[in-house]
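Researcher: Dear colleague, please comment on this protein.
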Amino acid sequence: MIYLDNAATTRMAPQVREAMLPCLSERFGNPSSLYSLGTKSRETVDEARKAIGQILGADGEEIYFTGSGTEADNWALKSAALDQKERGRHIITSKIEHHAVLHTCRYLEEQGYEVTYLDVDEWGIVKLSQLERAIRRDTVLISVMAANNEIGTIQPLGKIGQIAGKHGILFHTDAVQAFGQIPLPVKKLGISLLSASAHKIYGPKGVGFLYIKKGVGLSSFIHGGAQEKGRRAGTENTAGIAGFGRAAELAGEEMKERGERERKLRDYLIRRVLGEIPYSRLNGHPLQRLPGNSNFSFRFVEGEALLILLDMEGICVSTGSACTSGSSQASHVLLALGLSDETAHGSLRVTLGRETTGAEIDRTVEAIKRNVAKLRSKSPAYADFLARQRPRGSSRGIRF
């Protein structure tokens, strides 16, 4: 099997499993218990907090564990909006956010809030001039993702943070795809709230965190006990948190070297696909993108059909976000870039990881070429297109 869907989830690193095992056996105490078995679990949780904070240039006390990145997004948006409802009920986000943010914004609109959805340019970058114009006296929150989960485009977080800070507005970023992949110095970038998830960086599923900047009085989202300093009730997932902490340490140690390696393989993949497959295009910014992300559209091809053919050859890729798998609708991200519905439906996301090799990229490119040609050979639209390209009076086909 060739696994090239690391944006959906990653294989847990062996070092992460090793860090989790003690919490599943002898160190099983409840972190809230006062006896030594519990305090050892509390120490494990606090060590993970510190490890994650170091990557962000934050204090460990600013890290609050959740059950997922989605929960962290919901907490950030709903609590920030509700806490400030007397000040205003206007929120700004972008049209290409993950559904964890978009659906939360839709919910808040049902509760009487107004949401402005910013456009993006052809590369998927938020238009800063439109952001400035969208700010109102009653704007209480700006939420723009750090990097897009489908096309990998990295947003200008520092500039967005400056704009938010200038107007005294909280700035939240969904960093589920970006955390551990690129540097995210939260203080320098002016970020108030940041969401992330462990399973995107070779950690376990079922654990995430929300960074809450000191001084931001975000209220609880889940009520009950006094865990997470009274801000997130529920017994901590100690084993998952231990794994997250170790995964964060590894990400910090490997980020530069792994990023450079994935970037080289990614660029090699892009050159081959665009150079060897006619009527293909790269979606997202050509340079300002996550190291391992590539997203292509192939005309006259249905992305899901291509995915199935590749799966039959043992190659795992996707057509977009795993959270929208099975949807018949074209990607809202690709449509926001200005792609037609047909082109958006012909997309394929290939995301590399720490185990990806050059040989796997070569095999994948050959499989994509072969199966794109196979699907196009059965497409009446492609046959009509080729017929229109032939010179008048010629029966010869076009060479690509």
Confidence is low (pLDDT under 50) at residues 393-400. The first helix runs from residue 14 to 20. The chain is about 40% helix and 15% strand.
